Amino acid sequence: MSIRFITNEQLYKEAIEPVAGAKSFVWIGTSDMKDLHVHTRGSMNSFLSVLDALVRKKVAVRLLHAKEPGPNFRKTFDKYPMLWDNIERQICPRVHFKHIIIDGRFAYSGSANLTGAGLGIKGENTRNFEAGFITTDPETVKAIMDQFDEVWMGKFCRTCKRRAFCGDPIL
Predict the structure, then answer these.
(1) Strand extents, DSSP E, the chain
(2) CATH architecture for the domain at 3-165
(3) Which of 82, 98, 129, 151 is the least buried, fewest Cβ under 10 Å from its Cβ?
């Protein structure tokens, strides 16, 4: 059981690479989401290919984000028909946390969005300055999961003062 602070390039290796090894579920919460590219099978591919491989193995995937991703993401998403019906997505314009939860045993929480500049493989001179932590501490993983799940289930929807900005309310 551990909690470890990570920054910049470490984020890719220690927060994104483990996603491919998920056995049961992956939950990703982010404010901004773009067509992030990663190293897979010896080449550069969209992170959506990693999620596609997971859903093919019956791993449940949830994406919770603040706004619709841009056209590049959409164009790439359309190339993975398995994701269309086998990934759960919800939008909440108040989501600003950045979480990755894998199998309820590992979590990342920090500043980096699901973008190339945040969690991708951009070079040290073009990426954002990001920070966060990874953990396998059961209490900390549970706390991160609880926050994600509360938003996912719509706990705050009925009293939300930003409902006018919500294009697809959870509740």
Answers:
(1) 3-7, 25-30, 37-40, 43-46, 60-65, 87-91, 98-102, 106-110, 131-135
(2) 2-Layer Sandwich (3.30)
(3) 129
